[in-house]
Structure formats: structure tokens, C-alpha cells
Design brief:
about 425 residues; 13 helices; about 10% strand; elongated; about 55% helix
Length: about 425
Amino acid sequence: MKTTSGLQLENDRQLTVQEHLNVLTQQATLVFVLIIGLTGLFMTQIDEVLQWVLNRMNPCESTECLTLYEPASWSVVRWLTAVFLAVICILPLIVRLFYKFAQPGLTKNEKIMFRKWTMYSLVAVYALLSALFFYAIPALYSFGDGIHNEIGITSQYDAVQMFIFALSIFWTSLIGFILVFATMSAGSTGLITDSTQDWWRVRLHGIGGLVLLLSLPGRWNGTNIALITTLIIVLEYVIKNNVRKSNSINLPESIFDHEGKRRNVTFVDCSCKGVAYPIDTSPENTGLLRYDALCQNFDEREDLLDHTNRHGITDVIIGGCTSRPLPNSFKDALQSIQCSLRGLDLLGLQGSLHNSNVQLNDEVNIAMSNLIDPWSRNQRVTNVRTLIEKSSHEHLELNESISWKEQTNNRLRVNVHSWTDEEKKSLVE
């Protein structure tokens, strides 16, 4: 999908903002109507449902220990329980509708992530809620009641507070499992990396904490605080154990061009299936990414798009090729987020030479410094001259054309097809 601005993926199609809003409104209306309808349906039988639930949670042998201290609050419990049951019933539909809405704008990795955590989280949520209701919460109340009986205390339980306590645990478990499995799926697909983990951490903690803060029933007490704290601890543990190594070797720092514009430049070490000479380091204040074969691998291109969009990259410089073999759809996607694309053509520079060639290493470093925009022409001359002086080669081979000449021993190749005569002269002085 594509709006009037922002990232346009390779497989995106044109849709207006109004069309997106219409789809979202239709889906939200459907969910809202279903929740209202099911809530009304459950309300017709809610007293029988609550009686059955009380029988499961009641730690006493009779109902005499259950008390209703606030009769008005019982109506709130009835409605909350009906709404919760309605949400549980249509949860698979909610997730399905959300996936259908987001699917056109998702990358392949994101689609895989979404499908995985959807399937596993739904199964796990229903299993957990069943275990809590049938075993964990009744066992907890029975344990507490046993302690009271041992010390000779007559127990009286507020039915309202019992339900609110159970609903708080159920709701926290529901939100927690959705976030946990989303995190695990994102990690398994490489979306949570050492460079993006903070981005994910802030959003997962923020979403989980805010949802529980706004939705937990009852007055704020130690139970609600403990539930939110537990959720944060669990999420932090899951995030730390699902961090994957990033394709990013280092992130760029801003560079100002001759017009005073802020530029974030990233070099891409594309090995072209292990053929191209590897880029181990990039120039100062620039970023470095590493891929196997961008031209052939759709997932790698989508990862590069995601990285470029997330970190505000303005310039992408491909190492292996000239960037011409890359699909036009990928180039359009980069252009949609105001990112330029260039290539160093290190494959052309390398020719049939082996990666261990010492002279080739110096020539690659010079080629990376032989760039202008955002660097000035004077900076280019200075950087190239510095690298030439550091090398052990006595002679220069000035390459006047775009195509590279074959390497000659002890003659360092420098491409000067865009250099002025004065700049060339300063190079050989």
C-alpha cells in the first residue's frame, strides 16, 4: 500500500488514505457490533455463568462465606464479565481482521512474524486462561482459606473482589501472551536485533503498560501494580533472549553537505554470493551493512528498506556492483523515502583478482574515498591523497574512463574520470 508519503515497498499498490480509513472503519464497526451483540447475549445468561464461576473459585464447602458488600458493584462485575467473554469469543476474528488490514503494507518477514505469533498466541492464551480458571485461581483461594482455618479465623470473601481479582489476572495474561509471542516471532525473523532492541523495548513496554493501566478493572492496588511489574519483567526477559545479530555493522552519524543539509550515509557490503571484495570498514561517520546478494534476495532488499526507513538513511552506497542490476521497484521504494542509491562497482575493480590481493585492498579503500556528495571535491582529493601516501606502492595508474583497467603490479589504480585537470595534477605532485 502507499499513501501520499512514506515508505513504498517493492510490491506496494496505490491506495488513497481515504480507502485505508474506509477499510479500517468497516472492520472496527464489525468488531464493535459483534462485541455489543455478544455482550447482550451473554447478559441473558450471565447470572448462571457467574454462579458457575463462583462455585469454581469458592474455597469454602458452602456459599455462606461469600458476601456481597457492595451490591451496586455487582452490576459492574456482570457487565465486565459479559464484555470479557465477548472479547474472548471474537479474539480470533479480531486478529484475523487486523492481519488482513496490515498485510498489504507488511514485508515478508513481518508477515511471517504476524502469522506465527497469531497462531501460537491464540492457542496459548486459551490454554492459559483455562489453566488459571480451572486450577490456579481455585488452588490459590483454597490455599489461603486453609491458612485462615489453621489459625482459627472465620473467612468471609467479597464476591465482587474475587471476580475483579480473577478478571485482572485473565486480562493481564491475555495482553502479556500477545506481546510475548509477538516478541518471539519478531526475534525469530531477525526483526529484533542488537541495533533495534531499544526501539522494540520502548514500544512493547509502553504498549503493554498503557493498555493495562487503562483497562484493569477495580481500584488501583498492589495486585494491579504487581501484574504490570510482572508483565514488564517477562517482556524484558523475552526481548533479551530474542535479540539477533544485526546486518548493521555500525550506524551512521550525520554529515553536513555543502548546502548545509544533514546526510546519513551508509555503505552496503554486498558480497554478490561471496564473489565481491568485502568491505570491512567504512569512512568516518558513515554506516555499514552486510548482505549476501541484494540483486537476488528479496528478503535482504526488504531488510535494507526497513533499516533505511527506521534510521533515516539518506544515501545508500552499494559495494559490489554499480546498483544498476537492482530491481526498479526497489529503487522506487528507496526514492519514496528520499534516499539516493549509488554503487562503487568493486566487482569491476576486482576483476579476476583474489580477495587476498594486498594492492586490491588499497584500491578498494581509495574507491570508497573517491566520492563526492555529501563530501566536497576538496575533501575527496585530500582523502585520496592521504590513502595513497599511506600505501607502499610507488606509482599511480589514473583511470580516465568509468570501466576499470586490469591491475598492474606496483601501480595503484585511481578512477579520475570525474576529476578536473587541476585535481589530477594535485594528485600526482
